[in-house]
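Supplementary Methods, section 5.1.

A reviewer requested that the exact input to the structure prediction be made available. We therefore reproduce it here, unchanged from the version used in the analyses.
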Amino acid sequence: MDTRLLTTFTVLARTGGFTAAAAELHLAQSTVTVHIRTLERDLGVRLFDRLPTGALLTDAGRRLLERAEEVLDAVARLRAGSAEAGAVSGRVVIGSPESLCASRLPGLVAALRTSHPEVDVHLYAAGTRECVEGLRSGRLDLALLLEEETEFPDVTSEPVGREPLALVAAPGHPLAARERAASWPELAEESLFLLEEGCSYSDALARRLLQVPDARPRLTRFGSVDAARNCVAAGLGLTLLPLTTVTEELRRGRLVRVEGPGFPAAPVRLARHRRRWTAPAAQEVARALVRHLGD
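The structure derived from this sequence is encoded token-by-token as follows.
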């Protein structure tokens, strides 16, 4: 069987659309259609239902998907094993919370360009749920999760570091000038700008605030560290962010730290698919992540 057909099948299963699959594979849409029809004819089953909203896997397609990924995984191992010894090369896609993408990972990418110039690293900002789905679908090779533990049967993870958190406000905020730490009831009366749902430390803070009796905290969620940080710098409220994302603003005096009840550092875990083979380039990037985030 032509493994190109299996590659097209897995990409279409992941993207859910012939146009998106063609764009990712750099093929004409008609070629994707021919590949799928050929595969269906060879196997004697219908793999997709063609719907107005896209291509939906049939039961037979879902059964084939895992086997197709195993075949493509074996082919990748074979090619890597037969390649001549030399510089590690390849494309590695890392899923990571936006805060780590913005603050911690650019330095890693820069270092890898020097130590492994043939390794092409791509960063994809996403929360835990999207990262796990990316690992499952094969869209991501590695993922960083800001989680204490992970309980996904097909994803394995290991702790690689911790990110200190900082509660910050604009210099003129009433809580900024106080000598004593703000209590939970006091924080629950404030406006807080948090990252979107799925950000573990933002979710934990929101849950704790909502547990305060009769509290009605004003919580605004953003998908961007910059948006939350800028709102707070404008004097609109408070935010809780990794210290690395506000270090420059603290140095320049645009933000100040607010003493609060205490927020434990957010754990960082390196995750990968449990069954899928990790290519040599991804292995090198994983080792670099462990070193970089553990410092």
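The mean pLDDT is 88. These observations are discussed further in the main text.
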